[in-house]
Specification:
By secondary structure, the chain is mainly alpha-helical. Helix 1 packs across helix 3 and helix 2 packs antiparallel against helix 3.
Length: 92
């Protein structure tokens, strides 16, 4: 399981921006069924993340948590895309 593009052998020769671009290209080339699984997993993670914000006491803390979750959710969702797109990355 990959959490960063640095650990993927096929992407070692690229810069960080190029690695992310390669992952996005691989994600676009995934078949529909795999893309549907990725979108479903991301939706479930987002629902769980924002649902958990309902149980934070106090309006001020909820707003702070909502802003933090809104800013950090790409860090949570990118590994899902990354792991599902690895088989579609260009080989060395």
């Amino acid at each position: 399981m990959y959490f960063s593009t640095k650990n993927i052998p096929e992407l070692q020769q690229y810069s960080p921006r190029e690695r992310v671009a390669q992952v996005h290209l691989a994600a676009k080339s995934m078949p529909f069924s795999r893309r549907a699984v990725a979108v479903t997993l991301k939706a479930l993670v987002l629902i769980a993340l924002f649902w958990s914000l309902l149980y934070i006491p106090g309006l001020a803390w909820k707003i702070v948590a909502l802003i933090a979750a809104g800013l950090l959710y790409p860090l949570v969702l990118f590994p899902i895309t990354l792991n599902l797109a690895v088989p579609y990355l260009p080989k060395k």
